[in-house]
Design goal:
about 350 residues, alpha/beta, three-stranded parallel β-sheet, 11 strands, about 35% helix
Length: about 350
């Protein structure tokens, strides 16, 4: 793998260009390529505020005459129904060498149901702060947090794992019984499947992506979106019924073991990618002439004033997550998830 800034490519030409995010479609205008394939990993209009220029620009990328490949069936259906696009499906794989039940665990069992919450704090669509607020209402459980956010403590959480290297993540999964992940927007929805591979089960909302592999009341529990009472009931039921919990974990592990490996999925993706690339009617020159004007300037890095300590940054993240946890259920004003 060679990583190089666009500015250093010069006149280098490529057989296939693969934009992987709506903003990167604009970069096609700065590349030389024979064909292109748009790898759509989620419906990113859902992540942009309603009525915003970014949302309309994102929507415009789905209408371009670029062959599409995606990693989840629901995304392919959405592109077909909303944009009349025939997207090829190449599902993401699971690293069975990494996400497996045998191996070190971050801690031994304590006799309490150990819940893991995963995701970044301060992002409304990921709903981590609210999830932790819900779990504080369940007595007799232990709650852990695995997050990309820079934070070392959170109210009501027994242990926080911040910015772990990927190789250390399975040990956290193995030490927990249930992943509670109540996000509102997902693509492939990978963390529950990783948890399944490590021997746990999951409680989730009926977010897109869950239907790919989560079977309600068999290998996990799927609750209606914003139904916090259903989440509380599910967690309490698993805490008091170890037989049901064990059966659900067993089914979850069987689901993960039947899922394609990373190598198998990579081979499928390569085959689908080349097949889609051959469908491109306009060459690279023809496509570049039809690209809309998109803001392809890099996102501004969050400025860190000189001397700002890691402790202060952590406090800001913690406060934002706590504030979102206090919002009323389903308070996603400004977003359209359809």
């Amino acid at each position: 793998l060679r990583i190089v800034p666009l500015s250093r490519l010069g006149d280098e030409a490529f057989d296939i260009a693969v934009p992987t995010f709506w903003r990167t479609v604009a970069a096609l205008g700065r590349l030389r390529f024979a064909s292109a394939v748009y790898f759509v990993q989620s419906i990113e209009t859902r992540m942009q505020p309603k009525g915003s220029a970014r949302r309309e620009a994102c929507r415009a990328t789905y209408r371009l005459p670029i062959p599409v490949v995606t990693e989840a069936g629901w995304i392919a259906e959405h592109l077909r129904d909303r944009y009349r696009r025939d997207a090829a499906l190449a599902r993401n794989g699971l690293r069975h060498d990494l996400y497996r039940p045998d191996g070190p665990a971050a801690a031994p069992p304590t006799g309490k149901l150990r819940i893991l919450v995963e995701g970044p704090l301060g992002q409304a669509l990921k709903n981590v702060g609210r999830t932790l607020a819900i779990l504080r209402r369940v007595p007799g459980i232990e709650t852990w947090l695995l997050t990309q956010s820079e934070v070392g403590w959170y109210p009501g959480v027994s242990r926080v794992f911040s910015r772990l290297p990927v190789g250390d993540v399975p040990a956290v999964y193995r030490a927990c019984d249930v992943l509670v992940k109540l996000s509102f927007v997902e693509g492939m929805f990978g963390p529950p499947l990783e948890m399944f591979g490590c021997g746990g089960t999951a409680v989730v909302y009926d977010v897109t992506g869950a239907e790919e592999y989560i079977a309600h009341d068999r290998n996990g529990i799927v609750c209606p979106r914003n139904d916090e009472a259903a989440v509380l009931s599910a967690v309490q039921a698993l805490a008091r019924d170890p037989v049901r919990l064990a059966a659900m974990r067993s089914e979850a592990l069987a689901t993960a073991r039947a899922w394609p490996s990373w190598d198998e999925a990579s081979g499928t993706f390569r085959t689908v990618l080349f097949r889609q690339a051959a469908k491109m009617e306009d060459g690279g020159d023809g496509l570049r002439a039809r690209l809309p004007r998109l803001d392809d300037s890099p996102a501004r890095a969050s400025a860190r004033p000189p001397g700002r300590s890691a402790r202060l940054r952590s406090a800001r993240v913690l406060f934002k997550g706590w504030r979102l946890g206090l919002r009323r259920p389903g308070d996603l004003s400004g977003f359209d998830l359809d």
